[in-house]
Amino acid sequence: MLYNLMNDRIFTSIFNDSKNKNVTARFLSDFLGLDYEYLKDNMKIKVRKRPIEIYSNPYVEFDLYVSLPDMVINVEANNRKRNEKSFAYAGKSYYENYDSKKEKVKKKVIQLNLNNYEKRDKEIEEIVPKDSVNTKYLQNFVIYEYFLPAIKELCYDEADEKTKKIISWSVILLEKDINKVEKEVMKVLTKEDVPGFIEKMRKLCEEEKAEEFWENYHANVDNINHIIKTEKELSKKEGIAIGEEKGIKKGIREGINEGKKLGKEEGISEGKAIGLREGINKERIGIIKNMLNEKLPIEKIMLYSGLSQKEVLNIKNSIINERIVTVSDEKENEIFAI
Fold first, then answer.
1. With bands split at pLDDT 50, 70 and 90, how would you rate the model's confidence at 86?
2. How many helices (H) and strands (E) does the chain have?
3. How does residue 185 score in pLDDT terms, banded at 50, 70 and 90?
4. What gap in Å lies between CA 71 and CA 194, rounded to an integer?
5. Which of 62, 124, 203, 213 is the most exposed place for a label (fewest CB within 10 A)?
6. Is the pTM of this model over 0.85?
7. DSSP string, 100-126
8. Interatomic CA distance for residues 76 and 172, integer angstroms
9. In this model, does residue 189 exceed pLDDT 90?
10. Do residues 201 and 181 touch, judged by C-beta distance below 8 A?
């Protein structure tokens, strides 16, 4: 075979398939020591992004996510050392099941990491978060690390029954020789489940089918990436255009409002200034008229007011004219009275 089951896309296509529910239940039962019948009857496989179909674009957030009445199980197939993503997913699973009001998790959270690399002197590791005094930091939360290459090399004949099953699964997950895989599948699955499992593996992993599958997959991914990139660029341009248009309109509105405000303020100021000047002039003219009525010499009025002789004479003439108009009005009234 060209690929093994540790390939993310192949792993998810096999174990997220509801038609393979018996296989997934057996797989989890053997690795975690859980009751097979309980798993088969109660587990719900939750595909996070879109359905997994052979020869489609099988992208999911988790490799395998199973929900049960009392627990959730997240499985990650890791081909790289120190895969922080697995721990991030474990934390996310815990957070999603945490009840902040009761300050406890609703369900037990199990993170199962299947690692395609070795760790010195260890085949299986159980990680329980603890504080500095070795007390459990989180309740109902555990991470299991399985180092498959090391498990695969264990002596099958000397192992106990549980370990034998894990050794068989390690071979199934890592091996590219379909004959060796089929031999191990016979040890862990029922006769009814073996044919469908092997057939699906052949479709996904053998050279001719796998090449066709991955060509389609990569073409789909490239196409999707191109669409996303194009949409982002178009959205960016559209966003800039809308922003500019809104900015211009807003600027115009603000400019008009600011202009009105400034115009109003300037008008008020100018009006006040004009009114003040007119008031002062009226008061000044009134004082000069009083001086003229008191028959003060024009030279003194010029000295006191700072006006020129011509300006003082103009005011004097205006007084004479006002008197003439007043007298004329009085005479006219007398004629109409007769």
1. low
2. 11, 8
3. very high
4. 28
5. 124
6. no
7. TTTTEESSEEEEEEEESS-BTTBSEEE
8. 16
9. yes
10. yes
